[in-house]
Amino acid sequence: MHPPIEQLRRWIGVRFGTPATLEPLGEGEDYWAVVADGVRVYRFPKAEHVVRQLEAEIAVLPKLQHLPCPVPRIDAIGRPDGRDDLAWPFLGYPMLRGVFASRDTVPNPDAFLDELAEVLAVLHTTPEVSPFNDAPGVAWEPEPIEVDHPVGVRVVQWLEAHPRNDGPHAFCHDDLGMGHVLIDPDSNRITGIIDWGDCRFTDPAVDWIGAVYHWPSLVERRLPAETLLRTWSWALQYGLNDCLEGADWSVLETRLAIAEKAFDEPVLTGISMADSDGATARRSAWRIEVARSGGSLSGS
Q1: Neighbouring residues of 24: CB distance < 8 A, sequence distance ≥ 6
Q2: Residue 78: beta bridge partners?
């Protein structure tokens, strides 16, 4: 549920002056966003654990202004100071214009992917810029989770059959779904990349996940086979994590089918959607990172 607009207006007004208009922009998993006077965005964490992501954005974004596409230029940070009931900090920046990239909004996917590749090439050679996320070599301990859904078992089978050797770590967005890429449909140019709270050092293949979901054949032609394999491995691993937290299994099943087609190696071996008991027996104690920690996936 979105907080009352008047409450957000008060929090902004106490610190930066009261906007004449304030409209909801959207609500993601972690933030509420509003547009002030049609030109500024303010983002408010929805929970205390999200503050760490917000602080990462505050630290990182000033050091990413060299990217060949716009990123938010934070110029307002509101913090609790005892003057009102604000519990957690929030941030503001001039609004980036555009629509979210998708199969429906990108008129020339080839040119779009070329530009995205240029942006990622610069991002992935950016030195360490975040004091909050993890430098190369940090080991993560995944949680033991039982995978008992048939689609989940098929994903685990695919991951077993296609072991991933991560590439050299680089600085990555690590949540680069197309809902975080803005585009001008008229010019086909990227007008912004937003929501950098998950950025960290990891395998740069993770930043192709959003694109490979939308344009698998075009991405396949652009990436070396090993990078493509890593991209799909991360995509299915992240997708499995999401499903274990309540996401729709049918979406993951569709993505698995695309990965199988990309590698011409289907791993479905007679497990039907009704065979959940058999699925549990086949794979009952996999260790999966539930949070997006970047840890390895290993059987136990």
Answers
A1: 2, 5, 32, 33, 34, 35
A2: 90
